[in-house]
Design goal:
This protein is α+β, with helices and mostly antiparallel strands. The chain contains 6 helices and 9 strands. It has 2 domains: 4-144, PITH domain (Jelly Rolls); 156-238, no CATH class. The chain has helices at 82-87, 158-163, 165-172, 193-201, 203-207, 213-238; strands at residues 13-15, 34-35, 42-60, 67-74, 92-95, 102-107, 116-126, 134-135, 137-144.
Length: 239
C-alpha cells in the first residue's frame, strides 16, 4: 500500500532545497517539484506517525536532473548533516536507473526496512552530474506494523555489529558515556545517543563477553531492539 497517509508532514525536513520548492510538494503525485539550491545534493528526512515496513519507493523526476546516487538511512534521532551522511554507512546504497524516474517501483532490502519510524534519503548527485536536482514525487510502498509488533529484531544488522566490534569496544571502554557533541565519532552505528547511552550503561556485561563475537553481537542487538521497540511505543503514544 501507499504510505503517504502515514507521513507526519510537519516533522519532515529537507536540507539543500530552495525555499520556493519545499519538501511537502513531492508527497503529492502531480504537485509541484522539489529542487536543490546550491548544488545537486539534497537530504530528505521523512517521519511517519507509526512504525511501518517499507518494501519499495517510487520516484518521479526529469531523466536529466532526477536523483541518481542515493544513501538511505532509517530511524535517526535528528536530520543528518551532509558531512554525517557522506561519512556514515547507509542502510542501503542505491543507483537509480533513469527509466525508474517515471515512477517505477524501486525495491528495497526488506530486512533492512522491516521496522521504520523515519527514513532519511541523501541524494548525492543527479543523472547529469551537474546543475540542480529536481524531484517531482516520492512515494513509499509498504505496510503499517500492528501494535505490539515484535518483528523489530530484523532491523538489527548482526554482521554490521561484528564488523564494527572494535569501535563498539572503544566506546564501552571510554571513561564517560557518549555526548551529543561527540556523536559524529560514533555515527557509524546508525544509533541515537540514547541507544549508545544504554549500551554504555551495560558496558561491564558486554565487555565480559567480547571473546565471543557471536554472543557479543547478539547481546548488543537485543539492547538495540528493545530501544527501538520502546521508541516506537513512545512515538505511537505521542500521536
Amino acid at each position: 500500500m501507499d504510505l503517504k497517509g502515514l507521513i507526519t508532514k510537519n516533522q519532515c525536513e529537507c536540507l539543500g532545497g530552495t525555499d520556493d520548492y519545499p519538501l511537502e510538494h513531492v508527497f503529492t503525485d502531480g504537485g509541484n517539484s522539489l529542487k536543490s539550491d546550491f548544488d545537486d545534493q539534497l537530504i530528505l528526512s521523512v517521519n511517519f506517525n507509526q512504525s511501518i515496513k517499507i518494501h519499495a519507493i517510487k520516484l518521479k523526476a526529469p531523466e536529466k536532473f532526477g536523483p541518481k546516487t542515493l544513501k538511505l538511512f532509517i530511524n535517526q534521532i535528528a536530520t543528518m548533516s551532509f558531512e554525517q551522511a557522506e561519512s556514515c554507512p547507509a542502510v542501503q546504497d542505491m543507483i537509480v536507473d533513469p527509466k525508474d524516474l517515471a515512477g517505477n517501483l524501486i525495491n528495497l532490502r526488506p530486512v533492512k526496512f522491516a521496522v521504520v519510524n523515519s527514513i532519511q534519503i541523501f541524494i548525492i548527485n543527479n543523472q547529469s552530474g551537474s546543475g540542480s536536482t529536481q524531484l517531482d514525487y516520492i512515494g513509499f510502498i509498504g505496510s503499517p506494523l500492528p501494535a505490539g509488533n515484535n518483528s523489530i529484531s530484523t532491523d538489527v544488522d548482526i554482521e554490521g555489529i561484528k564488523q564494527h566490534k572494535q569501535k563498539i569496544i572503544n566506546l564501552l571502554k571510554s571513561d564517560r558515556p557518549p555526548k551529543i557533541n561527540d556523536m559524529e565519532e560514533y555515527f557509524w552505528t546508525g544509533y541515537s545517543p540514547k541507544t549508545l547511552g544504554e549500551l554504555y550503561d551495560k558496558r561491564h556485561e558486554l565487555l565480559s563477553i567480547i571473546h565471543d563475537s557471536n554472543l557479543f553481537a547478539q547481546k548488543i542487538a537485543e539492547i538495540v531492539q528493545q530501544h527501538h521497540l520502546d521508541a516506537a511505543t513512545e512515538n505511537k503514544k505521542a500521536t
